Please model this.
Amino acid sequence: MLLGSIFLIILYLILQYIIAWISFFNNLDPRLGNSTWRFSYDYPVIGERDISDLDDKDFVRLRRKKNKIVLLMYSVVLIMFLASMSLLSQFLLFFFS
Model:
């Protein structure tokens, strides 16, 4: 149980670091929006849709970086959920056996 708790604390600190990066990317360009949990594709962009680097290189590359960080955040949240379920089952087995 102790190792599971330490693992969850480490994952929580990693999650806070990732969220700080997402807020940093959000502050670089107002077109990315302010949400932490959404991919930047969901936001309406003024003008034509910039799918390739030809339209607006800086914004498209920034959006792709932010989307990779958001995907990493979702991965860490999933690992945290699985680790918390494992810790909870160990906790219940310890007290009910």
The radius of gyration is 18 Å. The first helix runs from residue 2 to 28. The mean pLDDT is 86.
